[in-house]
Backbone:
């Protein structure tokens, strides 16, 4: 952070206006503070879209009036705990409000998970230079040094999901986990059994989708969390090290704009396509016989479970795609891989240690998706034509013959509709 400018200097104008108006609406004592990940991001000159606000006494009536006045939608997150949210959908900004969990703001911050998330600044002081930072645990120094440190000896046990939150921070930012925090994570790993599988899945999705997965995976392996979470036995062979070429291939593909867009697409909350492909590769390397069951236990979506099972059922050979084939034949080859055609191609590319085929398959994937959207991969013979030629009634057999015709087209046996008619007449009469 540039100490010579206020925290609000890096924010968009609409965010500053909303924060100023909120500060005015909640101006009466006791104070209101900007806290947590929002402040952490601001101190790193990043623009948050979520703003975490803590208050010492109930401000809900004022918050609701402020939301109505500025076009926001207010609703409860947890009425029993007096936690609410205001969303400004047009601007894609949200504010989360919660009361202090202790008598003072300093005591509240000491109850949080990691020091980098345990800082606060009075809401009305965002324009001050330098900021009036409240930092009882030394979070600012840890943030500038890239160190992840627990706030106290009890905070991880109080909510064991914080174990994975710490690893997620490591994976997303590349921060180093402090030695005593690291030791306690390893000690408390069995407590994750007490955490709802849905919460674990959400963190795992973000970990495997993160930019700095390499150190996080080494940490998961060294602390026994791979065994704890996935039932992977880490005593027989290492897994983090053999994954390095796969990580390198992922970063190579992410330098290609079109492939990067596909890899960064979310397949479910918090989990990108790249993250799911890397998770599938890890389970394959670990010889997981039923990866679908492993992920289902962790409450991954049915689609994610099925896709990982498909990816682990057998490798896809990219050499089967002939660069000399027509665009239609190549599209038909891809179509035959459905469901999960694009994902299978990306998974095969991630396992390639050089990039000689990247451009060809990037174009192929883009062309295939365009043809899908335009519904251009029409069969050479419609169902009605097949019924006229064969005398078959409507039913499953028509679709089977259409697929056979596509396979014959891929094999080069037929190239157009007249040839397809002759081929079908010959094959059906036999």
Residues:
């Amino acid at each position: 952070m540039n100490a010579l400018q206020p925290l609000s200097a890096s924010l968009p104008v609409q965010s500053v206006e909303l924060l100023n108006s909120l500060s005015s609406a909640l101006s009466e004592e006791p104070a209101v503070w900007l806290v947590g990940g929002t402040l952490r991001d601001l101190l790193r000159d990043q623009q948050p879209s979520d703003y975490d606000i803590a208050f010492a006494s109930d401000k809900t009536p004022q918050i609701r009036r402020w939301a109505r006045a500025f076009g926001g939608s207010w609703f409860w997150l947890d009425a029993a705990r007096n936690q609410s949210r205001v969303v400004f959908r047009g601007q894609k900004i949200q504010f989360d409000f919660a009361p202090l969990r202790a008598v003072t703001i300093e005591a509240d911050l000491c109850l949080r998970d990691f020091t980098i998330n345990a800082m606060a600044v009075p809401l009305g002081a965002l324009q001050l230079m330098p900021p009036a930072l409240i930092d009882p645990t030394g979070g600012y120094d840890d943030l500038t040094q890239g160190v992840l440190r627990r706030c106290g000896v009890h905070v991880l046990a109080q909510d064991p999901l914080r174990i994975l939150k710490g690893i997620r921070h490591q994976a997303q930012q590349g921060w180093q986990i402090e030695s005593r925090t690291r030791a306690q994570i390893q000690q408390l790993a069995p407590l994750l059994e007490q955490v709802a599988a849905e919460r674990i899945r959400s963190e795992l999705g973000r970990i495997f989708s993160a930019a700095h997965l390499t150190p996080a995976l080494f940490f998961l392996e060294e602390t026994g969390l791979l065994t704890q979470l996935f039932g992977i036995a880490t005593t027989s062979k290492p897994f983090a090290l053999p994954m390095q070429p796969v990580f390198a291939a992922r970063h190579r593909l992410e330098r290609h704009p079109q492939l990067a867009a596909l890899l960064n697409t979310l397949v479910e909350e918090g989990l990108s396509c790249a993250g799911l492909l890397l998770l599938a590769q890890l389970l394959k390397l670990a010889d997981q016989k039923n990866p679908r069951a492993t992920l289902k236990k962790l409450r991954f979506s049915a689609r994610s479970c099925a896709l990982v099972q498909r990816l682990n059922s057998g490798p896809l050979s990219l050499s089967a795609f002939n660069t000399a084939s027509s665009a239609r034949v190549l599209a038909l080859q891809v179509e035959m891989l459905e469901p999960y055609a694009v994902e299978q191609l990306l998974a095969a590319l991630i396992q390639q240690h050089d990039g000689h085929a990247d451009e060809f398959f990037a174009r192929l994937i883009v062309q295939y998706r365009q043809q899908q959207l335009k519904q251009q991969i029409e069969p050479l013979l419609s169902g009605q034509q097949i019924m006229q030629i064969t005398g078959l009634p409507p039913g499953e057999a028509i679709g089977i013959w259409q697929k056979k015709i596509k396979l014959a087209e891929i094999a080069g046996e037929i190239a157009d509709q007249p040839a397809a008619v002759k081929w079908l007449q010959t094959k059906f009469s036999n």
